[in-house]
Write a structure and sequence with these properties.
Elements: E1 5-13, H1 18-30, E2 35-40, E3 44-46, E4 57-66, H2 70-83, E5 97-103, E6 108-109, E7 114-115, H3 124-133, H4 146-154, E8 160-161
Antiparallel strand pairs: 1-4, 1-5, 2-4, 3-4, 3-8, 6-7
Helix pairs in contact: 3-4
């Protein structure tokens, strides 16, 4: 068995029941061999960023332990997105969006995958839930904690923390 790594996944949805979509995606991640679910942040209601849509997002960040390679994890995430109705040919609204934010302290730059996610430091909808579950996690390139990066962006925009409607449904 491969060594276990800590990874963080960004989850988002702006079509249908956002919370239900995120819970479904989270549970499906946990059903993949080689993935153990650790923690899932609160859901956050966020304005769309860089998109021409009026539909707001529900976002969260999850921490997992993983024995899959980064590419195996990416494949599993893309399969879950497709199974839940995501069409990556469409760049706008989506029932679910999964982004690999960090995979241990690895730095990967390939055509298929960039880790850490290149937009983390500019997205409060990622940093707010990440800072909730891993405030002291240090970005391996920027050398700054999630909380520090989050606090810097809070002066520019806001996100609204919510509560999960049914915490027992997904074991967090």
């Amino acid at each position: 068995m491969k060594n276990q790594q800590q990874a963080f996944i960004g989850l988002g949805s702006n079509l249908g029941d956002g919370q239900a979509n995120l819970i479904d995606a989270w549970q499906r991640l946990g059903a993949v061999a080689g993935i153990s679910l650790n923690r899932l942040s609160s859901p956050y209601r966020t304005e769309p960023v860089g998109m021409d849509t009026d539909l707001w997002f529900t976002n969260a960040v999850g921490e997992i332990c993983i024995s899959l390679s980064p590419m195996e994890l990416l494949t599993a995430m893309l399969t879950i997105e497709t199974d839940l109705g995501r069409d990556r040919a469409l760049t706008q609204d989506r029932p679910v969006d999964l982004d690999l934010l960090y995979y241990g302290d690895l730095m990967i730059q390939s055509q298929e995958l960039i880790v850490p996610h290149p937009q983390i430091a500019h997205r409060l909808f990622v940093l707010a839930p990440l800072a909730e579950i891993a405030p002291e996690y240090v970005h391996p390139i920027l050398g700054r904690t999630s909380l520090d990066l989050c606090d810097e962006l809070r002066t520019q925009t806001e996100v609204e923390r919510q509560e999960w409607r049914d915490r027992g449904a997904f074991g967090v």
